[in-house]
């Protein structure tokens, strides 16, 4: 089962954080808080942004919904479709490729039985390919939530997958906390 | 304020300080005017994106005569006193314009035979004047399904060249923009994201500012090729806009209503949707007389000036 | 050991905490500067130091500050570009993660010089864990009176905030960064006007790279002359080089500009030579966008002189036989590497990261990727190789921002120096290095 729960509205604690972020920008420039707030909204809504969630963010920041859609669809960290509980992002740019990212990706694909952009049937894992994560010295590199895992090997991938499966890893946590 | 002097393709012209190279060229007129696919003088902030108006600045100004290191977007570069610009006299400019045309066509479906814009399409004109006849791109094009945005406007995203003009119309003419550019890079698309009707009094102007057939008038869809219709200037008392329009008639029937465009294809006045979509009876209008279309497109010519020939050997 | 300005004390445990940093002499430059220097004197000092922008362009930092419009009462902004994402570049993360107070100290100095009362650190969204480290350090700086109202009783007040990006390399371009900071799509602005006149919220703004800003405390503590005494020609001071690829010791090294490339690659102090004793094939010396050079041209210039790690020496020979220092992202490839495939990953990167605003980059980057994929897969033709070069030429210089050039240069240079390898792909109808 894919987790597509959308509570949409933030609880008071999250709202407080959002208001704190809005206050960082000059009056009338609350749109500046859009990227931080989208990150929070995505983490609180199963790792993706539905149109309801984006409309809610628009109302919080007093901007038009289209302004949110334009931005959310521009940046690669925002998912506009449901994703699995744990999104594994595999870097595939030159420096990671030089150090075996293709083999690593193939290993994840084989282990999970899915291709990049797909989610396992149990809704646990999604694989996403990403471009340079700026950790090239420790290539190949993957990202899960706000964690980087560097100097990856197939063995390390196996260990992580077992661990994540055992603890039912969720990569969607409020990135500010 | 005193005028400043600029030379474009060896022709000198005096303009107000702050004038762009493009508008200085338009003041001269004729062949030295660079083509524009995204710039629109009536839309603030437009231009700079399509790069089809790139020109060479051979001398920056009298004070600093150094040439500019790169070609510049003439629509967004202000002239300086004593500036020397090369447009059609620069082989480098012409070569790059050909390349820009090719870039614009790379993902453009060549569906002109079924496109309502054919005949008044700026991309057609640009390709005719600057494109290669024997381009050999074998690449697959990106595709999107055509959608309705409201009951009067059709969006063929496949044809869009991402000039952003329609977004600016919505930003600058209406209170509430519901469409925009979504996605990134060559996956960018004009969209409302979720199906939302674009519904306000001036949305129809998006059709007129669109340089290609990405936004077309559904009330005119597939009714006629534009060159089989005859344009007439007409007006009516309209509480919302100037009411000054062009009626496109076949026989006595009004097939389409548009704003009045100048020789660069720009609207003289934005018109309201009432005038554009809801008044198709002759009795609705005071007809002033036939309109002369100044743009050298097929509508006014109804024939090709020169034989279409293979120009590939010139461009090598 | 080269003079360590940026990585000084970097191995000290707990350096990211205020107390440890402060005990090692941290924030003394703020005390000194707010007391003894006017803002314009700080700018003059930075100009004199010869410090150049470390994000890649190498523009003199002090000169950039000098352009800021101080003629109006509009607020002015100082923004840190922490959108590190040029493939091969991973130096800023190192500073942010291990020594955030040095960056904050630099932010205070720069903000003071420019007269900014609010400053932002824009960090790529992927590095949220570094953002959290920096935010914690900012809190400590507030608590200790180095940020906020009336810093150290000087009358100067500054607020400093962190802002995450959302995953877009283009936001490393300063006007795209400003747009993103305003909560918009990262579309670069058409210049002029430059940010120094019309920047964040239409106010005068300076955007500097993390490494540039982190060098400021040392410069203010030790003086411009001490800084400019390090280095060679117009390459003053030290530079972080992030070295990766097929070397024995990938990592981040602080070098004095002027170090011979050969020493950098083969010395145990730095990269430690090529892995498995393999032969060096090629190097991309300054991040993925700079021209790739074959072994013989990266070690020695076309004139046969030793190539040095400096702005001038790496550029020696122009694009025909030279390259650029760029961001210091040093990617080393051994003789098992397929140049075409490596280039394909770069082309895919630039295609993925093109904002899509202007037509040459939007259309050209994807086109180049498709052709390279074809060649790599053995479906390419000889004509494709020339087509590739033609496209790169028509993107270069014709775009709104430098991403177009960044996409074009690797392609043009790879074909220039490794044409045979492209032709082999076509002739064999497969990658000659594939197993």
TrEMBL record, chain A:
InterPro entries xref list: NuoE-like, NuoE_dom, NuoE_N, Thioredoxin-like_sf
Cofactor(s) listed: [2Fe-2S] cluster
Record's keyword annotation contains Metal-binding: yes
Alphabetic keyword roster: 2Fe-2S, Iron, Iron-sulfur, Metal-binding
Keyword Chaperone among UniProt keywords: no
Binding residues for [2Fe-2S] cluster: 91, 96, 132, 136
Cofactor note: Binds 1 [2Fe-2S] cluster.
GO molecular function, one term: NADH dehydrogenase activity
UniProt superkingdom: Bacteria
Family membership noted in the UniProt record: Belongs to the complex I 24 kDa subunit family.
Record protein name field: NADH-ubiquinone oxidoreductase chain E
């Amino acid at each position: 089962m894919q987790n597509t729960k959308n509570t949409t509205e933030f609880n008071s604690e999250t709202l407080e954080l959002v208001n704190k972020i809005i206050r960082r920008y000059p009056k009338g420039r609350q749109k500046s808080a859009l990227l931080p707030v989208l990150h929070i909204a995505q983490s609180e809504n199963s790792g993706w942004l539905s149109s309801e969630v984006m409309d809610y963010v628009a109302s919080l920041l007093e901007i038009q919904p289209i302004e949110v859609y334009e931005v959310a669809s521009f940046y690669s960290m925002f998912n506009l479709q449901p994703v699995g509980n744990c999104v594994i992002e595999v870097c595939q740019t030159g420096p990671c490729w030089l150090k075996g990212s293709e083999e690593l990706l193939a290993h994840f694909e084989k282990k999970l039985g899915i291709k990049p952009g797909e989610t396992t049937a149990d809704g646990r894992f999604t694989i996403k390919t990403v471009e340079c994560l700026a950790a090239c010295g420790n290539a190949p590199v993957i990202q899960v939530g706000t964690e980087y895992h560097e100097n990856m090997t197939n063995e390390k991938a196996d260990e992580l997958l077992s661990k994540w499966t055992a603890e039912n890893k969720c990569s969607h946590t409020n990135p500010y906390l | 304020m005193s005028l400043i002097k600029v030379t474009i393709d060896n022709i000198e012209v005096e303009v107000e300080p702050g004038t762009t190279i493009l508008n200085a060229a338009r003041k001269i007129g004729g062949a030295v005017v660079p083509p524009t696919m995204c710039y629109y003088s009536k839309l603030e902030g437009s231009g700079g994106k399509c790069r089809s108006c790139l020109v060479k600045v051979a001398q920056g100004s009298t004070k600093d005569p150094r040439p500019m290191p790169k070609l510049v977007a003439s629509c967004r570069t202000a002239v300086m006193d004593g500036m020397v610009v090369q447009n059609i006299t620069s082989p480098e400019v012409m070569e790059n314009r050909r390349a820009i045309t090719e870039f614009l066509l790379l993902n453009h479906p060549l569906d002109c035979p079924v496109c309502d814009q054919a005949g008044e399409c700026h991309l057609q004109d640009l390709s005719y004047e600057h494109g290669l006849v024997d381009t050999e791109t074998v690449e697959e094009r990106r595709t999107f399904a055509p959608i309705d945005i409201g009951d009067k406007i059709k969006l063929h995203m496949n044809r869009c060249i991402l000039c952003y003009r329609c977004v600016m119309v919505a930003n600058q003419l209406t209170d509430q923009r519901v469409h925009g550019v979504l996605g990134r890079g060559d996956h960018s698309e004009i969209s409302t994201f979720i199906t939302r009707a674009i519904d306000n009094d001036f949305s129809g102007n998006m059709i007129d500012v669109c340089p290609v057939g990405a936004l077309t008038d559904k009330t005119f869809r597939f009714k006629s090729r534009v060159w089989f219709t005859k344009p007439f200037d007409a007006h009516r008392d309209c509480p919302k806009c100037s009411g000054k329009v062009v009626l496109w008639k076949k026989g006595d029937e009004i097939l389409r209503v548009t704003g009045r465009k100048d020789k660069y294809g720009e609207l003289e006045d934005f018109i309201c949707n009432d005038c554009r979509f809801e008044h198709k009876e002759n009795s609705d209008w005071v007809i002033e007389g036939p309109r002369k279309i100044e743009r050298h497109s097929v509508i006014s010519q109804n024939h090709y000036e020169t034989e279409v020939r293979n120009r590939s050997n010139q461009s090598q | 050991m080269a003079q360590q300005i940026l990585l000084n004390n970097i191995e000290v445990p707990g350096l990211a905490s205020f107390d440890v940093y402060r005990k090692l002499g941290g924030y003394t430059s703020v005390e000194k500067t707010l007391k003894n220097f006017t803002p314009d004197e700080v700018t003059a000092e930075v100009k004199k130091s010869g410090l150049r922008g470390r994000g890649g362009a190498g523009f003199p930092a002090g000169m950039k500050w000098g352009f800021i419009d101080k003629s109006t009462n509009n607020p002015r902004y100082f923004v840190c570009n922490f959108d590190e994402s040029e493939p091969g570049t991973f130096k800023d993360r190192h500073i942010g993660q291990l020594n955030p107070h040095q960056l904050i100290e630099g932010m205070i100095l720069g903000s003071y010089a420019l007269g900014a009362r609010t400053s932002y650190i824009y960090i790529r969204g992927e590095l949220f864990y570094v953002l959290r480290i920096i935010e914690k350090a900012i809190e400590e700086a507030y608590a200790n009176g180095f940020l906020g109202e009336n810093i150290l009783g000087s009358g100067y007040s500054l607020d400093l905030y962190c802002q995450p990006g959302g995953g877009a390399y283009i936001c490393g371009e300063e006007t795209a960064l400003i747009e993103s900071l305003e909560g918009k799509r990262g579309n670069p602005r058409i210049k002029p006007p430059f940010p120094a006149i019309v920047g964040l919220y239409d106010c005068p703004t300076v955007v500097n790279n993390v490494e540039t800003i982190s060098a400021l405390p040392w410069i203010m503590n030790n003086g411009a002359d001490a800084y400019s005494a390090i280095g060679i020609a117009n390459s003053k001071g030290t530079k972080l080089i992030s070295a990766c690829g097929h070397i024995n010791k990938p990592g981040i090294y602080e070098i004095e500009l002027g170090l011979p490339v050969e020493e950098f690659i083969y010395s145990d102090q730095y990269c430690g030579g090529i892995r498995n004793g393999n032969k060096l094939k090629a190097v991309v010396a300054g991040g993925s966008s700079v021209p790739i050079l074959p072994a013989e041209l990266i070690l020695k210039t076309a004139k046969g002189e030793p190539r040095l790690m400096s702005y001038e020496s790496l550029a020696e020979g122009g694009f025909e036989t030279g390259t650029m220092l760029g961001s210091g992202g040093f990617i080393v490839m051994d003789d098992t590497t397929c140049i075409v495939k490596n280039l394909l990953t770069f082309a895919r990167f630039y295609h993925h990261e093109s904002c899509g605003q202007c037509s040459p980059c939007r259309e050209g980057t994807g086109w180049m990727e498709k052709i390279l994929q074809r060649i790599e897969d053995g479906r390419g033709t000889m004509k494709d190789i020339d087509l590739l070069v033609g496209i790169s030429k028509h993107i270069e210089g014709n775009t709104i921002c430098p991403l177009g050039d960044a996409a074009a240069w690797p392609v043009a240079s790879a074909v220039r120096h490794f044409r045979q390898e492209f032709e082999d792909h076509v002739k064999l109808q497969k990658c000659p290095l594939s197993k």
